[in-house]
Design a protein that fits this description.
Layout: E1 16-22, H1 28-39, E2 42-45, H2 46-55, H3 61-69, H4 76-89, E3 94-98, H5 104-113, E4 120-125, H6 128-136, H7 147-170, E5 174-178, H8 183-199, H9 204-249
Parallel strand pairs: 1-3, 1-4, 2-3, 4-5
Helix pairs in contact: 1-8, 2-3, 4-5
Bound molecules: adenosine-5'-triphosphate and the ligand Nc1ccn([C@@H]2O[C@H](COP(=O)(O)O)[C@@H](O)[C@H]2O)c(=O)n1.
The ligand Nc1ccn([C@@H]2O[C@H](COP(=O)(O)O)[C@@H](O)[C@H]2O)c(=O)n1 binds next to α2 and α3.
Length: 250
C-alpha cells in the first residue's frame, strides 16, 4: 500500500508500519529508542502523543488526562488522528507505533482512517511481577505509575490488548521476544527480527548501497550508441585506407 492511502499524502513511497505491544513497563519505549538508532525508523508512542495532547490545551485535554489516571483507554478516533497527523508531518516512511493498537476498536479505526496494514507486530513478553517492579521504580513522575492504576492497566492489557495480539498472531504477523532479560539482551533478539525484515525490504541503507551500480549501469546505457557509431566510423576509415593502399599497389 502506498502513502496515497494515508489521506492522500502525495508520494510514491511505500509506508511501513510496525506496531509495538507488550504489558505496561515491558520496555516498549526503551527498545523503540534502540530500533530507531539502528534501523532508521521514526517512533511514535501512543501514550506520549496523548500526554502531549493534554499539555497542548486541546479541548480533549482534561478528558484524556482523567482516563489516563484511571488506566482506561481513550476513544480510538482521537488517538488514531494523533498518530495519523504525526505520520503525515514526518518525512520518514518507516514508523514504529508503540502502545498501539490497545484494543480491537483501535485496530479497526487505524485500518479505516489510516488504511495501512502493519508489516508485523513486535510483542514484548514479560511476567506481571517484573512489570510491576519496573513501573514502581520508573520514577518519571507519571501519574499512572502507582500500584492502584498499575493494576487497572494490567487488567486492560489482559482483557483488551491481548485479543489484538491474537488477531495478528492468526495472520502470522506477531514477532514475540522475551522482554524479561536485560535491555541489551532483549535488543539482540529484536535486532535479528528487524535485520531479516530489512533484508526482505528496500530499506534506506540498501538504497544507498545500490545507488552506485545503478548509476554506472545507466551511464553505460547512455554511452552505448556513441560507442557503436565511433566503432563503425573507425571501421569505415580503416576500410577506405585499406582499399586505397590496395589500389596504389595494383
Ligand atoms: N529489560 C529491562 N530490564 C529492566 N528494566 C527495564 C528493561 N527495559 C526497560 N526497563 C525499565 O523499566 C521501565 C519501563 O520501561 P519503558 O518505559 O521502556 O516501558 P514501556 O513498555 O514503554 O512502558 P509503558 O507502557 O508504561 O509506557 C523504565 O524505568 C526502564 O528503564
Ligand atoms: N492506544 C492507546 C495508548 C495509550 N492510551 C492511554 O495512555 C496511557 C499510557 O500509555 P503508555 O503506552 O504510555 O503506557 C494508557 O494507560 C491509556 O490510558 C490509550 O488510551 N490508548
Amino acid at each position: 500500500m502506498d502513502s496515497k492511502a494515508m489521506n492522500g499524502k502525495p508520494s510514491n513511497k511505500k509506508i511501513k508500519v510496525v506496531f509495538v505491544l507488550g504489558g505496561p513497563g515491558s520496555g516498549k519505549g526503551t527498545q523503540c529508542a534502540k530500533i530507531v538508532e539502528h534501523f532508521g525508523f521514526t517512533h511514535f508512542s501512543a501514550g506520549d502523543l496523548l500526554r502531549a495532547e493534554t499539555k497542548s490545551g486541546s479541548e480533549y485535554g482534561t478528558m484524556i488526562q482523567n482516563l489516563m489516571k484511571e488506566g482506561k483507554l481513550v476513544d480510538s478516533s482521537i488517538i488514531v488522528r494523533l498518530i495519523q497527523k504525526a505520520m503525515l508531518e514526518s518525512e520518514n516512511d518507516k514508523f514504529l507505533i508503540d502502545g498501539f493498537p490497545r484494543n480491537e476498536e483501535n485496530r479497526i479505526a487505524f485500518e479505516k482512517i489510516v488504511n495501512i496494514e502493519p508489516e508485523f507486530l513486535l510483542f514484548l513478553d514479560c511476567p506481571e511481577s517484573e512489570l510491576e517492579k519496573r513501573l514502581l521504580s520508573r520514577n518519571q513522575g507519571r501519574e499512572d505509575d502507582n500500584i492502584e492504576t498499575i493494576k487497572k492497566r494490567f487488567k486492560v492489557f489482559m482483557e483488551s490488548t491481548l485479543p489484538v495480539v491474537s488477531y495478528y498472531e492468526q495472520r502470522g504477523k506477531v514477532r514475540k521476544v522475551n522482554a524479561a532479560k536485560l535491555p541489551e539482551e532483549v535488543f539482540e533478539d529484536i535486532k535479528a527480527i528487524f535485520s531479516s525484515f530489512q533484508g526482505n525490504d528496500i530499506g534506506y541503507r540498501q538504497i544507498a548501497i545500490e545507488a552506485k551500480p545503478e548509476r554506472s549501469a545507466s551511464l553505460i546505457k547512455c554511452w552505448l550508441p556513441f560507442l557503436c557509431i565511433i566503432s563503425i566510423l573507425l571501421f569505415l576509415i580503416l576500410f577506405l585506407l585499406m582499399s586505397r593502399t590496395c589500389t596504389v599497389f595494383l
